[in-house]
């Protein structure tokens, strides 16, 4: 009863005093009330329960709504999906429903924050620019919104923040974007915008962040991008941009981050003229493009650089000596290019360097001894160059912070024992594959207890594996293929990976002279094995029932051995199997019906064994070619000829 009286009174006040009243009234402006009521009606579900509390007519008191204390009009809708609750713990909530056009009735709006709600669908209202001229912040990221960015957006001359990232927006970007003179943050990443980046973008002289990564933008980067004198972060990565990197980019005075990686950019890397250009640049990613030419000497001017990736381009020439000036550098990736010459000794000055990847180039020896001063270096990859190292320099193995070293295909000779003596016990990754290491794997290997990856494949190692190898409780990947190792493989199934310290998923012991130990498969605590290759050895013995416990196994290759065994029905329990190769053994008996459970199997080879009987009828077994089953003692049935009754 009473509230009805107040309601009439309020309407009356509104009619008589209009918008300019000094109020805290009992009803908000009718357009605001109508707009919000319709907004609420289009939301089907609100996990946070905030909209459920939107009752009565004083929408200024509703949660998430703020009104101007002078005009009484709604100026903010603040309903983000991530908010801090009263007890200070962050809450995440979702809202499902349609973003109604009716929000444009709230003509005094300055802030719209409906971000991170996950379930908001619909478009940005096409009339937004005409209806909401006071808008300063438009934040709709993390929803399921779609459609174009309306042309009228350019009318929002007060807009400072536009966050539309992580939605399904599409279409081309309107030229009118360039009219948003006050814009400071523009983030459209992870949508499906296509076409070109409008040249007008260069008008946004207050812009600090420009993030268009993960879209489908093609065409050139605007030549005048260098006009963005306030820009700190430029991220155009993971699009399909073509053409050159505009040379004007070097004029970006405030720039700190440039990510142009994963595009189709070509031509040379722009050259800064002096140390006054891009004085604050810290992060530069140009990797995975089609850039060519040399790495410019003048990169050495950019002494603020901390992380640089030029990987996977077509860069040639040598690594410039000037890079030694980049004393703040922590990460340098130049892998996957056509760089030649030697590593300049100046790189030894990069005392902050943590990661250096030079792999997959045409670099030659010798390695400069100055690199011994890289006391912080944790990761070094020199694999697949034209290095003929003959031996691994002692100083290299003694780098005090080294945890990952990859020297694949560096023509290293000599006994593994010799090198292990210098190796730090904190090593996590050791890749010495495709060299000519000789001798045994020594017991000392067991002291590398932090090792996650051990790759000694493609060497000339001989002898049995020392029992100390089971100390490698952090091992996830072991590759010893193509050596002359012998004895048993049981140890690999006895490595008790440390609880919580990862687990062994990849095992390749193929192409050696191992003969025993397959009875241990599946007997250890290694249910995480995904890839097990023991092919091309002299393994004999029986395939144990316990093999069926390897429920994560995707690849099993025991081919080309001397295994005299029946096929255990339990193998049908390894339902993750995609490739099963058992050809060229002495397998006997039938193919168990349980193999019909291997529904993920894409490749099977049981040929060249002594199997008999009918191939179990059904998918996937009948779909493999005949050659999967040929050269057995007596297999029949689809895809081979029918069995005789
Ligand atoms: C109106 O609100 C602004 C901030 O939004 C505040 O600074 C100002 O003091 C308020 N004025 C009145 C009259 O409450
Ligand atoms: C905005 O950018 C366009 C396209 O580059 C240009 O033609 C126009 O003159 C610019 N407008 C202003 C006001 O700078
Ligand atoms: C690049 O974009 C594609 C398509 O939008 C997406 O599937 C992929 O995950 C993105 N890659 C990265 C590295 O973000
Ligand atoms: C170095 O780059 C290559 C690709 O060229 C990559 O395979 C390798 O994992 C990288 N090494 C490190 C340690 O990141
Ligand atoms: C590699 O270096 C060794 C020793 O310095 C030398 O004998 C050998 O000829 C070199 N091999 C090549 C291919 O350059
Ligand atoms: C590997 O080194 C051994 C001993 O130095 C040598 O006999 C052999 O020819 C080398 N093999 C290759 C492939 O270089
Ligand atoms: C297993 O290793 C052999 C020899 O190294 C190789 O030829 C074969 O392709 C590998 N099997 C699988 C399934 O990758
Ligand atoms: C397959 O696994 C199930 C459930 O663990 C078990 O009961 C069954 O005996 C196994 N089958 C074979 C053939 O080992
Ligand atoms: C199976 O292995 C045999 C012998 O290596 C080979 O000839 C045949 O092509 C293989 N078949 C399939 C389907 O892989």
Automatic annotation (TrEMBL):
Primary site of residence: membrane
Transmembrane segments: none
GO-annotated biological processes: defense response; post-embryonic development; response to other organism
Subcellular localization, as worded in the UniProt entry: Cell membrane
Annotated Leucine-rich repeat-containing N-terminal plant-type domain residues: 29-68
InterPro entries: Leu-rich_rpt (IPR001611), Leu-rich_rpt_typical-subtyp (IPR003591), LRR_dom_sf (IPR032675), LRR_N_plant-typ (IPR013210), LRR_R13L4/SHOC2-like (IPR055414)
Residue span(s) of domain Disease resistance R13L4/SHOC-2-like LRR: 224-408
GO cellular component, one term: plasma membrane
Any one GO molecular function term: kinase activity
Pfam families reported for this sequence: LRR_1, LRR_14, LRR_8, LRRNT_2
Keyword tags: Cell membrane, Glycoprotein, Kinase, Leucine-rich repeat, Membrane, Receptor, Repeat, Signal, Transferase, Transmembrane, Transmembrane helix
Keyword DNA damage part of the UniProt annotation: no
UniProt similarity note: Belongs to the RLP family.
Protein name: LRR receptor-like serine threonine- kinase GSO1
């Amino acid at each position: 009863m009473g509230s009805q009286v107040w309601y009439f009174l309020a309407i009356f006040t509104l009619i008589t005093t209009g918008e300019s009243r000094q109020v805290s009234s009992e009803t908000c402006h009718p357009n605001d009330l109508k707009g919000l009521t319709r907004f609420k009606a289009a939301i089907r579900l609100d996990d946070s329960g905030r909209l459920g509390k939107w009752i009565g007519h004083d929408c200024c008191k509703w949660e998430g709504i703020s009104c101007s204390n002078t005009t009484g009009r709604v100026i903010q809708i603040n309903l983000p999906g991530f908010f801090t609750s009263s007890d200070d713990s962050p809450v995440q909530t979702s809202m499902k429903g349609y973003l109604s056009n009716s929000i444009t009735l709230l003509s005094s709006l300055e802030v719209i924050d409906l971000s991170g709600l996950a379930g908001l669908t619909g478009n940005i209202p096409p009339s937004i620019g005409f209806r909401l001229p006071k808008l300063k912040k438009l934040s709709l990221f993390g929803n399921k919104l779609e459609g174009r960015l309306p042309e009228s957006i350019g009318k929002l001359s007060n807009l400072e923040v536009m966050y539309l990232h992580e939605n399904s927006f599409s279409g081309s970007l309107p030229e009118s974007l360039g009219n948003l003179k006050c814009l400071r943050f523009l983030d459209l990443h992870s949508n499906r915008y296509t076409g070109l980046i409008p040249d007008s973008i260069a008008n946004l002289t207050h812009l600090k962040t420009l993030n268009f990564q993960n879209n489908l933008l093609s065409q050139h980067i605007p030549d005048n991008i260098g006009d963005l004198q306030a820009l700190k972060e430029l991220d155009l990565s993971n699009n399909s941009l073509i053409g050159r990197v505009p040379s004007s980019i070097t004029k970006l005075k405030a720039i700190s981050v440039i990510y142009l990686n994963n595009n189709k950019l070509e031509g040379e890397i722009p050259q800064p003229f002096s140390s006054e250009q891009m004085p604050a640049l810290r992060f530069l990613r140009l990797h995975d493009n089609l850039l060519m030419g040399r790495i410019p000497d003048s990169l050495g001017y950019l002494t603020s650089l901390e992380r640089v990736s030029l990987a996977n381009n077509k860069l040639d020439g040598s690594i410039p000596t000037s890079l030694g000036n980049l004393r703040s550098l922590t990460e340098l990736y130049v892998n996957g290019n056509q760089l030649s010459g030697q590593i300049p000794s100046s790189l030894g000055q990069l005392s902050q360097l943590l990661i250096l990847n030079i792999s997959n180039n045409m670099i030659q020896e010798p390695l400069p001894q100055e690199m011994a001063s890289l006391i912080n270096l944790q990761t070094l990859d020199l694999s697949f160059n034209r290095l003929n190292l003959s031996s691994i320099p002692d100083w290299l193995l003694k780098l005090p912070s080294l945890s990952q070293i990859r020297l694949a295909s560096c023509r290293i000779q000599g006994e593994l024992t010799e090198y292990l003596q210098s190796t730090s016990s904190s090593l996590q990754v050791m890749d010495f594959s495709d060299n000519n290491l000789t001798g045994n794997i020594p017991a000392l290997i067991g002291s590398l207890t932090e090792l996650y990856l051990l790759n000694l494949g493609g060497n000339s190692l001989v002898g049995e594996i020392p029992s100390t190898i089971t100390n490698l409780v952090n091992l996830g990947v072991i590759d010893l293929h193509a050596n002359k190792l012998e004895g048993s493989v049981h140890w690999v199934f006895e490595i008790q990976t440390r609880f919580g310290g990862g687990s062994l998923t990849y095992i390749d012991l193929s192409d050696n002279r191992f003969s025993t130990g397959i009875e241990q498969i599946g007997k250890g605590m290694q249910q995480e094995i995904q890839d097990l290759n023991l092919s091309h050895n002299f393994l004999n013995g029986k395939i144990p029932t316990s093999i069926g416990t390897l429920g994560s196994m995707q690849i099993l290759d025991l081919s080309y051995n001397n295994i005299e065994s029946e096929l255990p029905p339990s193998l049908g329990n390894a339902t993750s199997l995609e490739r099963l190769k058992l050809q060229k053994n002495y397998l006997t008996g039938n193919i168990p019906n349980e193999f019909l459970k291997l529904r993920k199997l894409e490749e099977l080879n049981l040929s060249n064994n002594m199997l008999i009987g009918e191939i179990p009828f059904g998918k996937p077994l009948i779909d493999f070619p005949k050659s999967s089953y040929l050269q057995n003692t007596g297999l029949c049935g689809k895809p081979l000829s029918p069995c005789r009754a």
